[in-house]
TrEMBL record, chain B:
The keyword Aminoacyl-tRNA synthetase does not apply. One of its GO terms (cellular component) is outer membrane-bounded periplasmic space. It holds the Pfam family SBP_bac_6. This is Polyhydroxybutyrate (PHB) synthase, ABC transporter periplasmic binding protein. One of its GO terms (molecular function) is thiamine pyrophosphate binding. GO terms for biological process: thiamine transport. Keywords: Signal. Signal peptide: none annotated. It comes from Ketogulonicigenium robustum.
Length: 581, 348
């Protein structure tokens, strides 16, 4: 029987409207808290010359773009930054994949402890972690010490170059790949692997034809996130680059903050953003081709159809080498994440005036005493926690509907919206800070907490959406259809089928959002006020005079608090169940 | 009787205002009330600790006010002050020697006045932007055992033993500016002929490294990456006391480059009296002594006693004469250009 045309139209319109409705909250939040400051940055980029006190609206000029695009120096920095970000992404994926596989395979009762390996580094201030890497790679550092036992080295050139920055950034960003991968890996039924094995596939073959393709949605999210974050990194690049490494994020900071040359900084930001987005677009296209089943409703598709077949010799070699290689990479990943933190804890007891001094001059507790006597650290810590919780809740509330809109609904403009939602990730934090600062000082004043909350929500939304999209893709729609056929309405289906299925993704997104907000320093330092200073800004503030080991003491205490909180949570909430689908 | 026109009346009022004694005008400034809040933008670490201990309690006791701090680097603080010109969220901000001069010129902060009682004791150099609160000059720092003879001139940077061992300080940054300016001056240039400085810096290539802060420089010394650099004498003395006893802080014949922390009152502050008293207390003996003792910063006022045990680390009034100062306003205007040039020609 032919459906009446108008009835079909009604259904299409209704589906489109649901999609639009789901996409609206996040779009509105980003328009208010991100698009408007970015419009300010855009206007600044069209200023013909720099005048910090001039009007925002001026006759548009392309002079700044001509300066940036016509200058080989700027272009070289942009290209080097993109290459650096690419290197960081490769290292993060190489080390993050075995780590994610290990997390999935850890027995449930140890899983909370295993998560500490990636959560503790994320909760440690980026300045402190970078100093840990300095202590690791220094000529008289641990790495050279170990190599020395084997009669190798010492290597004096490991610091202050692109390699050192790459290692430091991988240490900082690898957990994001792990979290993204973990979510999809643990959602894959072990029966799929068993089926492949029962059909005679060797371990390498199982990896190439089943495990790897199934993890591609998570890998895609991890690659995009790490690449965009690495391409805008500032703090680690400054500390580990030793003045020799110049990234576009550093150039933007220098032009905007040191030289107060907002127009050039704004133009540079937008050029860099376009370049980064171009890369993200290529990644998304490649992954779309590699995962044809993902957009196929019901999960039916031609899994691995587009992955090339491996030569049999390579498969056999990998069967032998693979287990050893994966163990080596796993050990390297864990060491890279934890060794700098161990050094940070050791430094917190070192009686030296400077945080970066590698010599152990004597045991002292005075840095802890200074931290505990100074109530500002506590206040700053509480501010950071409040801000992180607030921004996580708001970001989740708007990101969950957005993820469904992206995965399950097609309507005109959805692709454009997806790009818009990911934009905050591709802009250097300093640019968002400048835009927000200009806006807040020109037009209105928000209560400090609300202003910071708005910015933090903007920063964490792309992470939440990226992770939740991967989770929504993994949902088994046949269960929803079964529930519907048994009479469950939309609300019942959401709470009884969808939400439990999404729980791991929501947990991963919450953790990532919380940690990102908790550790954010670049934008926050612009908007912080006397009554609203966060812990990372407090530590950053200390570092601007002379880095005392108080920052190590604060970090060690944060790590201890995190450990206690995780164990208490695990006792009452069973973290392993939170992560288990 | 002719009534006075409004414009004439306005001119008279303006004229009276200009001609009025300073104390008469000041009476119009709102006096502090208990509960008022002074917002201070300052660096963290020891700087914050010292003002909390030696300035805040006295101010709070006198006026019953509250003091809050915005902590962070100079860059963020300055960017915010510029964005808020005329309606600032800070009352007092701390800047460096050339930023403070420029901020006054740009109308972001106020020029110093006699309303700050202790300002009468300021050395002339410390009263040219806001209120200088600590001298922190930059000079050559080197490993003593690596020198064939003590360094006595900026020209000694070119001695063979330092080839490839010089950690060039980054521009922008006061230490990098000091290296650039002092090399220019030593070889016949100055801030208006900075090409000389850039050429001489280039001659020092290859560098052991580019150092971005004192912390960074000491790390490079400790790990044998570099043997010589240009840094703040005060911070070098702190390092010498602890992890780097084998370094020497040079006193070149051409002089050492002036550098200074400056407290500035923002234009448009609603807490003028509190801000002035804050700075007054910062310039007082107890605070200056704490700075000398804890950070080896030299006093900017001539009425404090330098303790005997600190005389080899603190600038004496006679040594003040050897501080080399420049046209800091011109330097501020060239900061962007020099910074870009440094990145392209020196660090690259």
């Amino acid at each position: 029987m032919v459906q009446p045309l108008h009835a079909g139209n009604r259904r299409v319109i209704s589906q489109r409207n649901i999609g639009r409705g789901l996409a609206t909250p996040v779009t509105l939040v980003l328009i208010a808290a991100f698009a408007v400051p970015m419009a300010v940055v855009m206007l600044l980029s069209l200023h013909g010359y720099s005048d910090p006190f001039g009007p925002l609206f001026r006759t548009p000029s392309a002079a700044q773009y001509a300066t940036v695009l016509g200058d080989f120096f700027y272009l070289k920095v942009v290209l080097e930054t993109l290459l650096l970000a690419g290197g960081v992404t490769v290292v993060s994926v190489l080390l993050g994949y075995p780590l994610a596989l290990w997390l999935v395979s850890v027995p449930a009762r140890w899983r909370a402890l295993a998560f500490v390996v990636i959560l503790i580094p994320l909760l440690t201030n980026v300045v402190v972690r970078s100093l840990g890497i300095v202590l690791l790679l220094a000529p008289d550092g641990i790495l050279n010490g170990v190599l020395g036992w084997f009669g190798i080295g010492p290597f004096r050139g490991m610091l202050y170059n692109y390699g050192a920055v790459c290692v430091a950034l991988a240490q900082v960003f690898m957990p994001y790949v792990v979290l993204a991968l973990y979510d999809v890996l643990q959602g894959t039924s072990p029966r799929v692997h068993e089926a492949a094995e029962s059909l005679g596939a060797s371990p390498s073959m199982v990896f190439w034809t089943v495990r790897f393709p199934m993890a591609l949605p998570g890998l895609r999210a991890g690659i995009v996130v790490v690449f965009l974050m690495a391409s805008t990194a500032y703090v680690s690049a400054t500390i580990l680059g030793g003045g020799r490494v110049l990234t576009s994020g550093m150039l933007v900071y220098r032009e905007a903050i040191v030289n107060l040359n907002y127009p050039v900084a704004a133009a540079l930001t937008l050029v860099m953003t376009l370049a980064s987005l171009g890369f993200s677009g290529v990644v998304l296209l490649v992954f779309r081709r590699l995962t044809p089943w993902v957009n196929n409703a019901g999960g039916q598709g031609r899994a691995a159809a587009t992955l090339p077949a491996l030569p049999i010799a390579l498969v056999r070699t990998m069967d032998v080498v693979g287990p050893i290689l994966s163990k080596v990479l796993l050990a390297a990943a864990i060491l890279l994440l934890l060794l700098p933190l161990y050094l940070v804890v050791m430094q917190s007891f070192n009686d030296v005036p400077q945080a970066s001094s590698a010599k152990f001059m004597g045991f002292t507790l005075k840095w802890y005493q200074l931290v505990l006597e100074n109530g500002n650290y506590t206040a700053a810590f509480l501010n950071s926690v409040r801000l992180a919780i607030g921004s996580t809740l708001v970001a989740l509330a708007v990101s969950i509907p957005a993820a469904f809109a992206l995965v399950r609904f097609r309507f005109p403009g959805i692709s454009g919206l997806a790009v818009f939602w990911a934009l905050p990730l591709s802009l250097p934090g300093v640019a968002i800070g400048v835009g927000m600062l200009q806006l807040l000082s020109i037009f209105f004043r928000l209560p400090p907490f609300l202003g910071l909350l708005a910015v933090h929500v903007v920063i964490v939304i792309p992470f939440c959406i990226s992770l939740l999209v991967a989770s929504v893709m993994q949902l088994d729609r046949s269960q929803e259809e079964a529930a519907a056929s048994l009479g469950a309405n939309a609300v019942q289906r959401f709470f009884r089928i969808i939400l439990p299925g999404l729980a791991p993704g929501i947990a991963a997104a919450s953790i990532m959002a919380f940690l990102t907000s908790f550790g954010e320093v670049t934008v926050t330092s612009f908007l912080t006020t006397a009554r609203m200073t966060t812990l990372p800004v407090r530590i950053y503030a200390d570092s601007t005079f002379m880095l005392e080991p108080t920052i190590h003491a604060v970090s060690a205490m944060t790590m201890l608090l995190t450990l206690i909180a995780l164990f208490v949570l695990n006792k009452f909430l069973r973290l392993d169940r939170l992560y288990a689908r | 009787m002719t009534l006075m026109k409004r414009r004439t009346f306005g001119k008279l009022v303006l004229g009276t205002g200009v001609a009025a004694p300073f104390s008469f005008v000041r009476s119009a400034i709102a006096q502090p009330k208990p509960g008022d809040e002074l917002i201070v933008g300052i660096w963290g670490g020891a700087q914050e600790r010292i003002v909390r201990e030696f300035v805040e309690p006295a101010l709070v006791e006198k006026y019953g006010c509250k003091v809050s701090y915005v902590l962070g680097g100079t860059g963020e603080r300055r960017a915010r002050a510029y964005a808020e010109r005329g309606r600032p969220s800070f009352d007092v901000i701390y800047l460096n020697i050339y930023e403070s001069r420029q901020a006054v010129t740009d109308g972001v902060t106020q020029a110093p006045t006699d309303a700050v009682e202790n300002a009468q004791y300021l050395y002339p150099l410390a009263k040219m932007g806001g209120y200088g609160v600590a001298f922190n000059p930059a000079t050559i720092i080197y490993k003593t055992d690596k020198a064939s003879a003590p360094i006595t001139s900026w020209k000694d940077l070119f001695n063979d033993e330092w080839k490839g061992r010089f950690a060039v300080p980054q521009v922008p940054g006061m230490e990098g500016m000091a290296a650039l300016l002092m090399l220019a001056k030593t070889y016949g240039g100055d801030e208006f002929n900075i090409d000389v400085g850039f050429d001489k810096l280039k001659e020092l290539k290859p560098f052991a490294a580019v150092q971005t802060s004192a912390e960074n420089a000491w790390q490079m010394f400790e790990q044998d990456i570099a043997d010589i650099t240009v840094e703040f004498g005060s911070l070098a003395n702190i390092a010498k006391d602890s992890t780097l006893p084998g370094i020497t802080i040079a006193d070149p014949t051409e002089g050492i480059c002036a550098a200074m922390n400056v407290a500035c009152i923002t234009t448009g502050t609603q807490n003028q009296v509190l801000a002035e008293e804050w700075i007054n207390l910062h310039l007082s003996e107890p605070c200056m002594q704490a700075y000398m003792r804890q950070t080896y910063y030299s006093p900017t006022v001539n009425n404090v006693v330098i303790p005997d045990d600190l005389k080899d680390k603190i600038l004496t009034p006679e040594q003040m004469e050897r501080l080399v100062s420049f046209d800091w306003e011109h330097i501020a205007s060239k900061q962007s250009e020099w910074s870009s040039r440094f990145t392209r020609e020196i660090a690259g």
